[in-house]
Design a protein that fits this description.
Strand content of chain B: under 5%
Oligomer: heterodimer
Order of helices and strands of chain A: HHHHHHHHHHHHH
Largest interface: A-B, 103 and 105 residues
Helix content of chain A: over 70%
CATH topology of chain B: MetI-like fold
Shape of chain A: globular
Structural class of chain A: mainly alpha
Structural class of chain B: mainly alpha
CATH superfamily of chain A: MetI-like
Number of helices of chain A: 13
CATH superfamily of chain B: MetI-like
Order of helices and strands of chain B: HHHHHHHHHHHHH
Largest sheet of chain B: none
Largest sheet of chain A: none
Shape of chain B: globular
CATH class of chain A: Mainly Alpha
Helix content of chain B: over 70%
Chain lengths: 274, 304
């Protein structure tokens, strides 16, 4: 619709005003209060609080596990999306519906059940323990929880792209004598890449702020398996407001960078569609 | 692409993939790998909750759920959802009407602001409320003088939940209102209907399924929110413990079966949410197929 066209629908002032006030009071004002309150700190104090060794260890774990989990999802989530979109097999409908399960499941329940599954006596932990691998209460457990919560983002970003994929292109490549691997590499992969990156970034963004599902399975040992959001909670419980706010501002800054990245990626990948 | 779980019409009108895609061995290997991944990360976590909840038998399960603190947690969780969802529903309708049916400058900035809670860690969402309303917060001393408690009390829990669920309904409705265009509303207004009447009888019916879906997603998150609520709740047994907080508390008290009993209620909430989504997709697909039969070249009605 051209912007200059007269719009006879009523209620713009009322609904716009309500929208701005609501978003302002509920979202913008509280976040602004956090930033303004942080300005009370001197830059040196902020730097000291935001980069103390325990905080640095928690960032390393949060980012390391989040990147690893998003990577696992980019690989296996893409595979799952591909299989769901391309093949028909018994149980396909059920698995397809369950892809959304991690999103719909409250994070505390996810944490509880994953911690139990991967504990030494759990259904999966028992086998892994025999192989000498401990997942629960280690950084590996953090990665497992973050893989769980990120899975729907990758699969649901890729599925429509794979379904809408022009199969004639693949067939043309095959007809022209390209082998299966070559067809995949030079026709399929470049088309999927923007969507894989978008799914990866969405899963990463979700993982970095994630709290509930992780704290059950992580063990929460300082410097070892303590994620940054948990350290914020601990600082708050110690009434160390300044320490909590410094960490929160670092996390917020990273979230915003990721938000911008995701928007750019979506713009880029939408050029590949249609 | 969505920060929630989009309605997805996978095989609508397209039919199954060709059996010829890949050699049988490759195909079996890919399906096997994908299903193994799905088993570990989707099927087993769900099955584990249900099995462990009933681990000590049905009567123990019932006793656990009728514990007074558990009852209080269930009531509080329902109360929080009953307050949160209508607030975000009215907001979602207003925002979708303003954004979807009108053009103005700064639209994408406004949408970004509505999306912000998706990008903020739940813990940070709780923290900002403590910074505003806590004892050492901006409004703390004033609230204290007037004997108003927000943090460690129901208002704080509701505010934290409203914050994290702000985008859910609005983000379902905005694209639907945009896609259905303004022609029908303009026709109704030309025929003399009032603005409200046009909204109730023309706009609302055209987005009703998306609206319902947004409400269901918002409700699931409102009942299940953990991080933000955990920061502002204070964990007072029987008073400020929601069902997800109850899960954590029982887990730390080494009451596995109790934790899983509380968790099973929330897992069922998730299953109901997924069931509703499947129903919605089935309805849209059926309508699409009917439309195909009636007019083979017809496009699917947006926001059906």
């Amino acid at each position: 619709m051209p912007a200059t066209r007269f719009n006879p629908l009523p209620g713009f002032g009322l609904t716009m005003g309500y929208t701005l006030v609501y978003v302002g009071v509920i979202v913008v004002l509280p976040l602004a209060a956090l930033l303004v309150r942080t300005l009370d700190l001197t830059p040196a104090d902020f730097w000291r609080l935001a980069t103390d060794p325990r905080a640095m260890a928690s960032y390393r774990l949060t980012f390391g596990a989040s990147l690893a989990a998003a990577g696992v999802n980019a690989l296996f989530g893409t595979l799952l999306a591909w299989v769901l979109a391309r093949y028909r097999f018994p149980g396909r409908g059920l698995v397809d519906a369950l892809v959304d399960f991690p999103f719909a499941l409250p994070t505390a329940v996810a944490g509880l059940t994953l911690a139990d599954l991967f504990a030494a006596e759990g259904w999966l932990g028992r086998g892994l323990a025999m192989a000498g691998i401990q997942v629960a209460f280690t950084p590996l457990g953090v990665m497992v929880a973050l893989t769980f919560v990120g899975l729907p983002f990758v699969v649901r970003t890729l599925q429509p792209v794979i379904e809408g994929f022009d199969r004639e292109l693949e067939e043309a490549a095959a007809t022209l004598g390209a082998g299966r691997w070559r067809t995949f590499r030079s026709v399929v992969a470049p088309t999927l890449l923007p969507a894989v990156l978008t799914g990866f970034a969405l899963a990463l963004a979700r993982a970095i702020g994630e709290y509930g599902s992780v704290i059950f399975i992580a063990g929460n040992k300082p410097f070892v398996s303590e994620i940054a959001p948990l350290l914020i909670v601990i600082r708050l419980e110690e009434y160390d407001y300044a320490g909590a706010m410094a960490l929160a501002v670092v996390l917020l800054a990273i979230s915003f960078l990721l938000l911008i990245t995701i928007n750019l990626l979506e713009r880029w990948s939408s050029r590949f569609r249609r | 692409m969505s920060r929630t779980i989009p309605i997805h019409l996978d095989s609508a009108g397209r039919g199954p993939g060709p059996a010829a895609a890949g050699s049988p061995a490759v195909r079996r290997m890919l399906i096997g790998l994908a299903l193994g991944f799905a088993a570990v990360f989707l099927v087993l976590p769900l099955a584990n909750v249900l099995v462990k909840a009933l681990g000590k038998g049905v009567s123990y399960y019932q006793t656990t759920l009728s514990d007074p603190d558990m009852r209080a947690a269930i009531r509080l969780t329902l109360a929080v959802a009953v307050i949160t969802v209508p607030l975000n529903l009215v907001f979602g309708l207003a925002a979708a009407w303003a954004i979807g049916k009108h053009s103005f400058r700064g639209k994408s900035l406004l949408i970004t602001l509505i999306d912000l809670p998706f990008s903020v860690s739940p813990v940070v969402a709780g923290l900002v409320l403590v910074v505003l309303f806590g004892a050492q917060g901006y409004l703390g001393p004033w609230l204290d003088r007037h004997d108003i408690r927000i943090i460690f009390n129901l208002p704080g829990i509701v505010m934290a939940t409203v914050f994290v669920t702000v985008p859910f309904i609005a983000r379902e409705l905005i694209p639907l209102m945009q896609a259905s265009g303004n022609e029908q509303e303009e026709a109704a207004l030309t025929l003399g209907a009032s603005g409200w009447r046009t909204f109730w009888h023309v706009t609302l019916p055209s987005v009703r399924w998306g609206l319902l879906y947004g409400v269901i997603l918002c409700n699931a998150r409102a009942m299940g929110e953990f991080g933000a609520v955990s920061v502002v709740s204070g964990h007072i047994a029987g008073l400020t413990d929601t069902l997800p907080l109850q899960v954590e508390k029982l887990y730390h008290e080494y009451n596995q079966t109790g934790a899983f009993a509380a968790a099973s209620l929330l897992a069922m909430l998730a299953l109901v949410t997924l069931g509703f989504k499947a129903l919605l997709e089935w309805r849209i697909r059926r309508r699409y197929e009917r439309g195909q039969r009636a007019a083979p070249s017809g496009r699917m009605e947006a926001g059906a």
